[in-house]
Amino acid sequence: MGVLKDLQPQLVFKYFEEICGIPHGSGHMEPIADYCVAFAKAHNLEYFTDKLHNVSIVKAATKGYEDSPAIIIQGHLDMVCEKTADSNIDFLKDGLKLGIDGDEIYAEGTTLGGDNGIAVAMGLAILASDNLEHPRIEAVFTVDEETGLYGAEAIDVSMLKAKKFINLDSEEEGVITVSCAGGVTAECILPVNRKRAEGTQLKVVVTGLLGGHSGVEIDKERANSNMLMGRLLYNLNKKIQLNIVNVAGGQKDNAIPKETVLNLIVSDEDVAKVEDTVKEYQHIVSNEYKTSDPSIVVKAENLGKGSHEVLDKESAEKAVMMLLNIPNGIQSMSADIKGLVETSLNMGALKVLEDGIHAIFAVRSSVETAKASICDRLISMMEFLGGKVEFTGSYPGWEYKKDSELRETVIRVFEKQYNKKPIIEAIHAGLECGMFSEKIEDLDCVSIGPDMKGVHTVDERLSISSVERTWNLLLEVLKESK
């Protein structure tokens, strides 16, 4: 007997438990895709699949809805696989061990995969039900969303007829997401020449920053340690011969870096100048960021005398020019949605390699042309300095649609069901809605979902009552979509 057999809505939790019994971590999609195909065959439904294992299943409109616009119900098949040190689960072979704690479902010692298994379960429950009222349903289940939206990027949508799209990948009940940012990784590469220098090696560190996710926390105006180091280098370059051994900060393009380390070779008489400049700079940044990033530390450490390869004078000056002037942080705010960051970029990683200085950015915007403009600025600067920019992992944004019939339907149904207004939200991060909006002209999208917490961790929980309310909301939206 299933652990979730007595929960409501019964059909939704039946399919959710079946999904949890099938290994479906990112990169291993065939078993869960085969399950969806077998479901379609068992219910005599038209279906489409591809070599990546994306699956689309179509159900005809019910009586009275034959002329109503079709609707896409969409979620992703893959889950993030994390487990505790003592868990013996093999994510390639084993299903999850589900449990119930009050109003919450969890998995013993592992992630639950409510993100996004509950979306797939709701889609299957709609497809399997024979007592619902709805227009033509196109249930689209994509693969490998968690590792880069790869399924949505590659899927062929030519067989789909719908212009309305309900994504079920949100994690907070009562929030209707209506826009998301697109993005790209930009790696700026500045070639350098080197020379040999002797003297005292100093290690200068900018540390103690809060950091954060460049999509979620860029609006908090926290400091970026790489950019702070650029300012410090400019000040040092005015006072001493700048012999840079190395400069490095951050690991990932989408994380605001917390620490950057600079290694310099200086003459004996310049040691005090560096130390004094560092102390002065500590006071400056502590004052500037006393509210948003109050624990910044700038310090210098004497590592003793030695001989090292350093950047030559021209290379060092170009590095200072780049790090001081290259754009970073919020570039524009949305004029349509109050408080939404529309366009930003984050220098998440900085390092010196054999071929030069590499600065790696996460560029984001909900307006595709604005994203392209930021990329053009990076290209222009780097080409002027004799460098280049390499772009990878581009994905489109989902631009806010001022006139959205679907959004208004969801809001109207929500207010009727909950007796309050929903939160209308746009996020400065990526959703699959962006990929589909690029593929399907004039697509009308919303994203909703039930309450989840601890997503992508072993503490993941899914609210039972929230699933039921979200299910009822979804069904009523379909019913009103004539």
What is the number of helical segments per DSSP (H or I, 4+ residues)?
Answer: 11
**Structural class by SSE content:** alpha+beta
Distance between the termini: 39 Å
| Total DSSP E strands | 23
Please summarize the sheet with the most strands.
Answer: 6 strands, mixed
**Helix percentage range:** 25-40%
Taken from the alpha-carbon principal axes, the silhouette is: elongated
Strand content: 25-35%
Mean pLDDT: 96
- Widest beta sheet: strand line-up: 1-2-6-3-7-21
Return Rg in Å: 26 Å
Tell me the quaternary state: single chain
Low-confidence stretches: none
Keywords:
single chain; 482 residues; 6-stranded mixed β-sheet; 23 strands; 30% strand
What would your notes on this structure say?
The protein has helices at residues 10-20, 30-42, 114-128, 150-154, 225-237, 268-288, 313-325, 368-384, 405-418, 432-439, 464-479, and strands at 46-49, 55-59, 71-76, 98-101, 104-107, 137-142, 164-167, 175-180, 182-190, 194-207, 212-213, 243-249, 255-256, 260-266, 297-311, 329-333, 341-353, 356-365, 388-395, 423-427, 444-447, 452-453, 461-463. By secondary structure, it is an alpha+beta fold. The chain has a six-stranded mixed beta sheet, with helices on both faces. A five-stranded antiparallel beta sheet has the order 16-17-18-9-19, with helices on one face. α5 packs across α7 (313-325). The protein is elongated and about 85 Å long. The chain starts with 9 loop residues before the first helix and ends with a helix.
